[in-house]
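Practice problem: predict the structure.
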Amino acid sequence: MARRRKSADTTLRNALVFLLLVLVGWILDECGLFGRGAQAATGAAPRPLRVGAWNIEWCGRPQDRSGPAQGVRQDPEDLADYVAFAKVAVLAVEEVIADQPGERSHILDRVVAALDTRTRGRWAYVLNPGRRDDDQRTGVLWDGAQVTPRTPGGQDWDARQHRPWRVPIQDRKTLWARPPHAMCFSAGPERTDFVVVPLHMKADYLGDFARQREGEARALVTALPRIERAFTDQDVLLIGDANLAQKVEPAVSVFETAGWHWLNAERRPTHWPSGALDAAFVPRSQPEFAGDFEVVAEQYFLARGLSAAEFRRRYSDHWLVVTSVRVMADDD
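Answer:
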């Protein structure tokens, strides 16, 4: 009888140890630590990096927000919670106001601080220069625990010395009111490097501007070889608010004819209440891009007990979109 009891105790103890290990592994995995350690130990392929984009409607100027959101200032804790939920390593942002010296945003300052706490990451951001000080800005947030920003010369990024690389657009007077910039990120030594170009194209505000977006697409496609040469990299991701309001967009045809793949060809809604404005374009020739396109909307509403209308009021009229970059041996 004693031997049976001892055997049963041993079995129970082993089961509890197993469950404890599983629980610890799950916690570390959620923190993003287990995957990195296991990959280093076993040589398994690293997880793809999630790269997203989000138009944070007039972030920093609530009086210019529209409809039920007019005058409602976004809470940095809300914004950080949404970004953390999306589990992105890099996030292009649009419609941010630089209201602090040095092209900083007091809201994004608090967002990255909250993200550090929530994800145990090392978050940072830059805002791209605008034409005027009070312009809407595009920019990029990133988690330094997952990626390292690089300059066109391949050096480590230093925010005190470097600025995002401005994409050369010839006709700057009528095209690209939010000038496109590029930033390069490395997934690690000898691993994938990729360039992110946040998009904010002309909106159909007080008119139909599909032809202007077509002109912006042509100008950007013309400049893309210079981006590739500057960063010595062909892994370029165009992502953000492309304002694709029409059912048939000439701008999409321009990108596709130039060899780019539109990842939201299904026109999944990305904007309140049903517009497919936000987009991602990747070169068809580069295997680093997984080709997926996710809209982070219903799953977040459900998890946080939010209605779409409440999200629109408190957060933005756009939803965050995500695609993946495979981490592999760098081929360029």
